[in-house]
Amino acid sequence: MALYKKTETLTQIPWIYFAAIDNFERNIQDSNEPEKVVSINIPDEIWFGIGNSGSNTDTQIINIFEGKGKDGNGDGKAEIDNPEDILYTMANLLLEYGPTEDDIKIGLWNYYKRDLTVQTIMNTSKVFRRFGDINLTDRDFPVNIRYNYSYRNTWGDRRGFGGLRMHEGTDIFADYGTPVHSTTYGVVEVMGWNLYGGWRIGIRDIYNIYHYYAHMSGFQEDLQVGQVLKPGDVIGSVGSSGYGPPGTSGKFPPHLHYGMYKDNGYSEFSFDPFPYLNKWERMAKEKK
Ligand SMILES: [Zn+2]
Q: Locate the M23ase beta-sheet core domain: which residues (predicted)?
C-alpha cells in the first residue's frame, strides 16, 4: 500500500490502479510460487528493449534499445525485480496514454489486449476506491442464514437445475423470497434473464472470480450493472425462475444456484463452490 501511494505521488496516477493491476496479476499466477511484494510481471522485451540481450539495467542503455524499464527508487538502475521500479515503469507505460480514468483504460487495453483483463482491473480499482483498502477479506453466505435453507454438494451432478451438461455449482434450497446476499467484494457484471438461469446476476470479485447467482425471483431495487458490492449486500431473493422465456417460473422447487468461475488471464473455468460455501456459512454464523 505504501509503495502504491509512493508511486501515486511520483506519477499522479491514483494508487488504486497499481493495486488493482498487482492484484490481478497475483491472482493469475501459480499459487505455489513464493509471494512477491509486487506481482506485476513486465515482459523482458518490453522492459529492456529488443536487442538488449545482456538485460542491462542501465537506464540509458535501456533507452537506446527503446525499453520501457524505469528507475523508481533512484539507484540509477531499472531492475525488473525491484518493486518500486516495477510500479514506476507500469505508471509510465500507462502515462503514455494519459492520466484520466479513460486514458488508463486505453493504456491497460494496449498493454494487456484483453477486454476481460481490463474490465477486471477497472472493477477492482473501483472496489479499492470505495473502501480505501486492499485487505478486503470479509465474506458472507449467499442466502440469509436466519432463514431456512439446505444444501449439499451437487458439484458435477448430471441432473440439476442449471441447464448445463455438468452441474457447475451448488443448489441452495430455500423458500421464495429468502434474501440473497453478495458473498464477496466485487462489481455487478451482468444482471437480467437467461434461458436456463432465469433471473440471474454475475458478480466479478477482486480475486478474478465470477460469482453466478441464478433462478432468483427478482433483484434488489436500484441494483445495476457496474455497482460496487460488499459481502452481505442484498442483491435479490430466492425464486424458481428459468427454463423458458422471461418470467418463466415454477418448473422446479425454489432454490439459489450458486456457481464460481476463475479467470486465469486466458480463459475462465468453473470450480466447486461447496467448500467455500461451508467456510462462509461458518463465518456468517460466528458473526450472528
Ligand atoms: Zn444448480
A: 165-264
